Amino acid sequence: MAYLDMQHNEPCGAGLLSHNALADQKRGWDDLIAQSRMKVHAYAAHEVIFYEGDPAHRIYELLEGSIMLYKLLPDGRRQVVEVLQPGNLFGLQADEVYDCVAETLTACQVRMIEHRELREVAVQSHINQCMLTQIQAMHEHAVLLGRKSAVERVSSFFMRFVPNRGVYGCLGPREDGEDSSTFTLAMTRQEIADYLGLTIETVSRVISNMRRQGVIQLEKQDRVRLVNICKICQMTGTRDKDTEDF
Amino acid sequence: MAYLDMQHNEPCGAGLLSHNALADQKRGWDDLIAQSRMKVHAYAAHEVIFYEGDPAHRIYELLEGSIMLYKLLPDGRRQVVEVLQPGNLFGLQADEVYDCVAETLTACQVRMIEHRELREVAVQSHINQCMLTQIQAMHEHAVLLGRKSAVERVSSFFMRFVPNRGVYGCLGPREDGEDSSTFTLAMTRQEIADYLGLTIETVSRVISNMRRQGVIQLEKQDRVRLVNICKICQMTGTRDKDTEDF
DNA sequence: CGCGCCCTTGACCAGACTCAATATTAGTGG
DNA sequence: CCACTAATATTGAGTCTGGTCAAGGGCGCG
To answer: How far apart are CA A192 and CA A224, in angstroms?
Structure first.
């Protein structure tokens, strides 16, 4: 076990583990995957992988596609608590049952990992790192749900689809002044509403307003073009209006 | 390394790890604590332990007292993202900086753990388990913030202070029909509001209404008596009105 | 006793929700 | 390929919950 022999001289670790350790744990994870021919399962869009309350037999790794985790109140109200990207783990539980429903948004490739295969040490570290990222995302989502207006919520949601913008160390627009981005939404208006803690009508109205204002364009209902990313970034409420990045 | 030799025969693990494994990792954690005389620091009420953006040098374990983690928007809006109890870890980060402010609610005892002391394997498992519990709590909080009314939020908040009630396998009221509970709030109205995604006025109004309705009593502003726990539990929105537990 | 802080209450307002009608899109079968 | 249908999205009108602003009350502490 080389793990325990590792030297860590970094004065300030990058989060829980240094870069070296991160590489090591990723290797450990990949090794585990390689050895034990674990099941990879394909799901269609809008299929449920597990329900809240199901016994938590195994954990999952999302390889391809997009998945949402949500919880339901007895009267039918729904809150999407996480939207997952490839590389994310899910189904990890503190208790013996899943605490929310996992449903695919698009067609997905999912790796299933039985608990007994998780005793490997290096794997624990990999799981740790995934959870840390998740927790940070949920902190930001709590701010969105608790404190942001409808416009700020939808703007924040759109900014998720622009890599390296609106985050710490945002580079600003490209040199040539071009500052737009186009992407396809994998979620319906209802799913977006349930993720942002709004109603479908409010989501629709906000998107329509943004279109009329010209900050976004819609090729199709699910094909969004952000015309001016910086502008939208300022609409998220997360950035101060005075510290414009252009 | 006994860790890798452990046999796990449980058909369905309790969450990520079996009961045995849980005991093992707790021992590993305690051993680590015992060996390395780690600093224990005392904080007064309403002291900041670290700010958002500070370099994440170390992690912390809350030994005694109560702590909140919050994030601020540039215009001053605040969202409390977690309220911690003794035993909880905090300061764990995916990045090199803390993603939120940690501030004490009451006087606290806090153990500081440098990153280089965290390489031990058994410790990783302990951290894992803490994070899993945290994640589940945040899922529930997301439902509260995204989908619950003011009354439901305050009721849910109060139910946090009643152990073993309002959760899966709730025992219901005692045999003798007594169904009340008294506790002291460590948070001001403003802190409660920022935790529940409401304003101070709304929190105050809801509490006053509950008092007028007779479901709670207030000895002092921060001393709450839930007169009828089952009733309040039904006001949380989490329980179906038809499945009363008495 | 008086000051300051926190909490409560009231009146009014606004943003988001509800309900309802209509428009658009995607999917299906002739 | 087009017509038809079902599902999804948009828009409007009206309502209501919770926010805002402002004033007053209570309590602890010097």
So the answer is: 14
The answer to whether the beta carbons of residues B87 and A87 sit under 8 Å apart is: no
Taking an 8 Å cut-off on Cβ atoms, the answer to whether A71 and B140 are in contact is yes
* Residue A38: φ, ψ to 5°: -80, 150
The encoded tokens of residue A65 equal 């596609």
Between helices A121-147 and A19-35, what is the axis angle to 10°?
110
Strand partners, A71: A79
What element of type H or E holds A62? strand A58-64
Nearest CA in chain A to B75: A240
Residue numbers in A near B6 (CB within 8 A): 119
Distance of B185 CA from C15 C1′ (whole Å): 31
Residues 6 or more apart whose Cβ sits within 8 Å of residue B174: none
Query: What is the nearest CA distance from A26 to chain B, expressed in angstroms?
Result: 15
Query: What's the predicted TM-score (pTM) here?
Result: 0.87
Radius of gyration of chain A from its Cα atoms, rounded to whole angstroms: 20
To the nearest whole angstrom, how far is the Cα of B70 from the nearest Cα of chain A?
9
Decide: CB of A197 under 7 A of nucleic strand C: yes
What is the rounded CA–CA span in Å between residue A21 and residue A13?
10
B100, B69 in Cβ contact below 8 A?
Answer: yes
**Which residue type, as a one-letter code, is found at position A56?**
A
The residue length of chain B stands at 246
Nearest to A58 by CA among A89, A36, A34: A89
Probe site for chain B from A50, A83, A90, A119 (most B CB atoms < 10 A): A119
Check whether residue B85 has its CB closer than 7 Å to nucleic acid strand C: no
Q: Which amino acid is at A22?
A: L
Task: List, edge to edge, every strand of the sheet that includes B58-64.
Answer: B40-43, B108-114, B58-64, B89-90
- Label residue A172 left, alpha or beta by phi (over 0 means left) and psi (-120 to 50 means alpha): left
The list of chain B residues with pLDDT below 70 reads 1-22, 24-25, 27-37, 119-122, 166-177, 241-246
pLDDT in tens, A166-218: 666 666 666 666 778 999 999 999 999 999 999 999 999 999 999 999 999 99
Residues 6 or more apart whose Cβ sits within 8 Å of residue B104? B43, B44, B45, B46, B47, B49, B65, B66, B67
Whether the Cβ atoms of residue B99 and residue B51 lie closer than 8 Å to each other:
no
